[in-house]
Amino acid sequence: MGFRLSAVLASVCFVAGTLFVCFTVDQKLLYRDVTEQSVEDGFFFYTTFYNAPLVIKTLLHTVVGIGILGLIGKLHKWDECALFFDGSSLAAYVFATGVYLAVSIPALRTIVDPIEGVDTREDRIEAMRVLAAGNSIIMILLGAILCLQGGEEYARRYEAKVLAKFEESQKAAGKAGSPNATEKKKQ
């Protein structure tokens, strides 16, 4: 396992871990009946998350950036395996980042800092449910990236195994064929 693969796996797992923590609140909003307690828990959790120190937000964004750079570095090889697995992984990662930028951040702003006279409590609850759905989409995309990276590693190892077997059979055929070739030359 190389450095670039490690960077991709570490960043995907870190972000997935962060989203699994959020899932403790999200699952109450998406997959169960919404109660006043689950709404208050969601408001408290996401307000704390949004008001976290800048260093935590910077760490999260840096880890996401490392993942993108790792995938671009892996794609630089530009063979069929990299094109299919790493290209698909990069597309999924960019899509997940787009969901974060287009859905998560505006929903967090609506939840934590609603516009007076415009955003009602129902709007904030709906924004929290949209945020939970966006987090679920991002988790599915990150899981797909992990599967694609595992598939790429499996394909590379399988290809190396088949290639080694082929070379071994070629060497065996070459050794068996060489005495016949010398006999034909003598005739």
Give descriptors for this structure.
single chain; 187 residues; mainly alpha; 5 helices; 88% helix
Main sheet: strands, sense, barrel: none
User: What does the radius of gyration come to?
Assistant: 26 Å
Number of β-strand runs: 0
> Helicity range of the residues?
over 70%
Number of helical segments?
Answer: 5
Low-confidence stretches: none
What proportion strand? under 5%
Describe this entry's structure for a reader.
The radius of gyration is 26 Å and the shape is elongated. The protein is an all-alpha fold and 187 residues long. The chain contains five helices and no strands. The mean pLDDT is 89. 88% of the residues lie in helices and 0% in strands.
Topology (elements, then pairings):
Layout: H1 3-30, H2 36-50, H3 54-75, H4 80-112, H5 121-186
Helix pairs in contact: 1-2, 1-3, 1-5, 2-4, 3-4, 4-5
Characterize this entry briefly:
By secondary structure, this protein is mainly alpha-helical. It contains five helices and no strands.
